[in-house]
Amino acid sequence: MPIFAKKIVILYQNSYISQMSTVKIKDKTFKTYISEDEIKERIKKLAARINEDMAGKNPLFLAVLNGSFIFAADLMREITIPCEISFVKLASYQGVMSTGKVHEVLGINEDLAGRTVIIVEDIVDTGCTMKQMIASLGTRNPASIHICTLFVKPGKLKEPLDIEYSAFSIPNDFILGYGLDYDQQGRNLKEIYTLVEE
Q1: Is 125 one of the annotated active-site residues of the chain?
Q2: Measured between alpha carbons, how far is 80 from 64 in angstroms, rounded to an integer?
Q3: Which of 64, 111, 131, 161 has the smallest CB count inside 10 Å?
Q4: Separation of alpha carbons 4 and 175, rounded Å
Q5: Are residues 42 and 168 in contact, defined by beta-carbon separation less than 8 angstroms?
Q6: How would you write the pLDDT of the chain (198 residues) with one tens digit per residue?
Q7: What residue spans of 23-143 are helical by DSSP H?
């Protein structure tokens, strides 16, 4: 076998091993689902669309904490038009099961009147929280509100949202990494992992 062919095989094998890696977070095991390179490539494409659509509008990005902080940072590095960013947190009713009820959007100090607002979220599943956030922001009279999310679960959506900017559409799997967590752990992982059924 030629030397260059051997190198290709070795690179392929290393890539395959990387893709099949698993991590243990507390009592759960997760396996690699989406690579860091693929995430970055999708974000570049997403940013290119935003740069084109929002040219001349000086949009205000509202990144929703905690989950979107890594996505927001990488997205902003690809945005080339004049823009601003702020971080918000949703105050929702606590419980064992998520109710999806938002009673306050915390951290908005900017005047949204007449502004083009882009909500930056890590994941949209049922859409209930996003719908209520949009309603809350709407009381501040922005010119327009747009949704930009790293992930959307179309099969779980309950609300008819106009999600203009989405990097990935995924099935209803539990994922973590790249800002998403399992019981506050795993946000620091560079890739996206999915739960291994045991």
Answers
A1: yes
A2: 21
A3: 111
A4: 37
A5: yes
A6: 444 333 333 333 333 334 458 999 999 999 999 999 999 999 999 999 999 999 999 999 999 999 999 999 999 999 999 999 999 987 654 433 445 566 667 778 889 999 999 999 999 988 888 998 999 899 999 999 999 999 999 988 888 899 999 999 999 889 999 999 998 999 999 999 999 976
A7: 36-53, 69-78, 128-138
Q: Which residues contact residue 154 at a Cβ distance below 8 angstroms, ignoring those fewer than 6 apart?
A: 169
CA-CA-CA-CA dihedral for 100, 106, 109, 110, to nearest 10: -10
Tokens of 133: 């956030």
Beta-bridge partner residues of 176: 193
Please give the structure tokens belonging to residue 138.
Answer: 């709407």
User: Pick the catalytic residue: 125, 173, 181, 183?
Assistant: 125
Give the separation between CA 161 and CA 85, rounded to whole angstroms: 22
Q: In this structure, what token pair is assigned to residue 194?
A: 């999915």
Q: What is the pTM of this model?
A: 0.83
